[in-house]
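Response to reviewer comment R2.3. The reviewers asked that we include at least one raw input/output pair. We reproduce the pair for Tubby C-terminal domain-containing protein here without editing.
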Amino acid sequence: MIASAFKPPQASLLDSDIPAIVGPQYCFPEQVHLTVASHILQFNNGNFVITDDNGNTLFKLDDKRIHLRDRTVLRDASDSPVLSFRKKSITLHDTYQVYRGESGDDLFTLKDKHMIDHHEQTYEIQLQADYGPTFEVKGDFARRNYQIIFQGTEVVAEVTKKHHFLATALTFGKNKYNVVVNPNVDQAFVAAIVTIMDAIYEDNNEM
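Raw output as returned:
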């Protein structure tokens, strides 16, 4: 595992009140391990897929290429829309709006804080009902090694790159990484952040 370039905040999740952004049905009392796989070769028609420890699909995209300037829909295993998102066209900072399902109901906004380095920087997440940022995304996005942090202190989810050189690489494709979601954290919210960050990195990598 590649070591992170930043020191994670040290805090307990036991005393916090983390909101269920998408819905309580996506929150579990225990820690959850997810796997993100893109450019998949042998199942789901090559789509971007997030699975649980047992290989069950939890979230997926219709296309393996995410077009942030168009609305992208994140679906559950039954193909029902969970969230959708797109990049705002005219903003000082790169800003991404996330909606509930395929509706126009805003849930939260994600934007880069400094616009300096797309590989090592901070993104802020502001919930629709809040006046200031509630979450931050910090770390090395190029190496898929970053954290989602609540109110500046509590790590609610962590992304780490996994390397596969054996037969499993033929099944899951070249891009596969792990997401640890801490207890009582909305998995659909985390899935949306991970999906957007993946798309941002791919866009900047092609520039």
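DSSP finds two helices and twelve strands in the chain. The chain has one domain: 30-205. Further pairs are available on request from the corresponding author.
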